Amino acid sequence: CSTSKTSKLAYCIKGTFVHSTDSSPMEILQDHIMGVNSNGKIEFFENARKQVELAKKWRFSESDIRELGSHEFCMPGMVDTHIHASQYSFSGTALDLSLLDWLDKYTFPTERKYKEAEFAKTIYSSIVRRTLRNGTTTACYFATIYTDSSLLLAEIANNYGQRAFVGKVCMDINNCAANYKETTDESIAETERFIKEFLERKYCRVKPIITPRFAVSCSEELLQELGELAKIHGTHIQSHISEAVGEVESVKTLFPNYKHYTDVYDKSKLLTDKTVMAHGCYLSDEELAIFRERGAAISHCPNSNISLCSGHLDVRKVLKHKVKIGLGTDVAGGYCSSMLDAIRRAIDTSKVLYIQYELGISMINNALLGQSVPGRYDSTVYKMGQKIDCSFLHTGSSHSNQQTMPTSKTFSIQKEKYTALSYKEAFRLATLGGSQALNIDDVTGNFQIGKEFDAILVSPCVPGGPFDVFADDTFEDVVQKFLNLGDDRNIKGVYVAGQQVVPLPNA
Ligand code: GUN
Ligand code: FE
């Protein structure tokens, strides 16, 4: 992975740039000029007033500048913090079951097919091409339990120029239905081989990630060994946590000596500042405090949460705990591989929660789970044994009209205003938030000088495109229209570390 110490200017882009910073979810910088150097890094980013001065210093001429059209803009490439490359073949189908049944009926039988290299190559090439075309410059992938085809995914991502994490999935218990599992020893030995062979290939922007599927699929011994391996090799870690009620119940049964789901991973040293856990819909305040302490992140996968009827993640609550958070498509539990969809579903989910708070439903739901949540009504106090009409609740697979408070606590609901996520905040989650969640925000996520140029060029007005722009639209309107209505027809170019990766070669 070569970067030279003396970098030359490679090219300039002039026009409107849209990105996020810690202090602002969306900055729209019109009439700016950016210089990208031969190492793929942002060398300068200034108001175009300074063009003459910059041209002198960096010795570029008008012909070295790519000038964007009047409605066009450049934004950071999107970061998909959780996606199963191996499930792409059935995305858009098989959404009629809840998580654990869905895994048994559709997912494990599909993932078994990846033992065959040819099959794996076809699907993995398709998902890498598809996500790049959709503007995903960084993807954090789950592959399958098979080491060799997981290495193939890494090679494919590298060949197409995507920034990626690739995980060989580990699972040694409870997966008999499709005969898709490994022994504990195999899982550990194959993970070691995976990391060793991966690192020997010395890819610049594709890295291995330790991947226990989730606590339901992993023995205590396997989790602990994987925690050790992550520590030895300094690798990233990914898994699932608290996605669905049935799963949370299973973890309670399988790991009776642990305080909660988070404790299972934490005791195995799987919660670090390089960890990203998908979902987290049912994490308590206490668990989120542990995430914050360890620097571990959450991948919010709203399409999947809705499609598998798993639940909703309250992003406001996660942000309040100052836990790092990004967005994930979670293909194929989430049916869409585009991060634009993840942005839209994140906003939808947040608005649903807002409605629930307004009606007081969410408070009761969380109170039943033994958690306190902010809400609108301050007069409601729930006591142990108190019957609550829960006909509007759906907890797991059991429907009931009456539920009993599960603890002796008295729940007093505080009055607090709830605000839904704005499109600007969702944009930040999909870009800078994702890079922070994956602990690569020193390299990518926005247009800070010195970061690598991971970007997409958006052209809102394309013939036959998915939306229209009118004369009285502000630039903010145009950006919002793209985020809500746009698709790959509007994405004219995708860059990773300064290299153009879309249009794809042979596309
Ligand atoms: N939990 C364990 N495995 C999976 C998976 O493949 N998809 C989702 N959404 N959740 C999981
Ligand atoms: Fe997942």
CATH superfamily of the largest domain: Metal-dependent hydrolases
Name of the top-level CATH class of the largest domain: Alpha Beta
Bound molecules: guanine, fe (iii) ion
Termini, distance in Å? Answer: 26 Å
Shape category: globular
Q: Largest sheet, described in full?
A: 9 strands, parallel
In the residues, how many domains can be counted?
Answer: 3
- Number of E-type strands: 21
As residue ranges, the low-confidence spans are 372-380, 389-415
Helix/strand class: alpha/beta
Q: What is the count of helical runs?
A: 15
- The CATH topology of the largest domain is TIM Barrel
Folded structure, characterized:
- This protein is of the alpha/beta class and 507 residues long.
- It folds into three domains: 126 residues, Urease, subunit C, domain 1 (Roll), CATH 2.30.40; 292 residues, Metal-dependent hydrolases (TIM Barrel, Alpha-Beta Barrel), CATH 3.20.20.140; 55 residues, no CATH class.
- It is 35% helix and 21% strand.
- The strands form four sheets. Strands 6, 7, 8, 9, 10, 11, 12, 13 and 14 form a nine-stranded parallel sheet that branches. Strands 1, 2, 3, 4, 5, 19, 20 and 21 form an eight-stranded mixed sheet that branches. A two-stranded antiparallel ribbon has the order 15-18.
- Strand 10, helix 6 and strand 11 form a beta-alpha-beta unit.
- It binds guanine (GUN) and fe (iii) ion (FE).
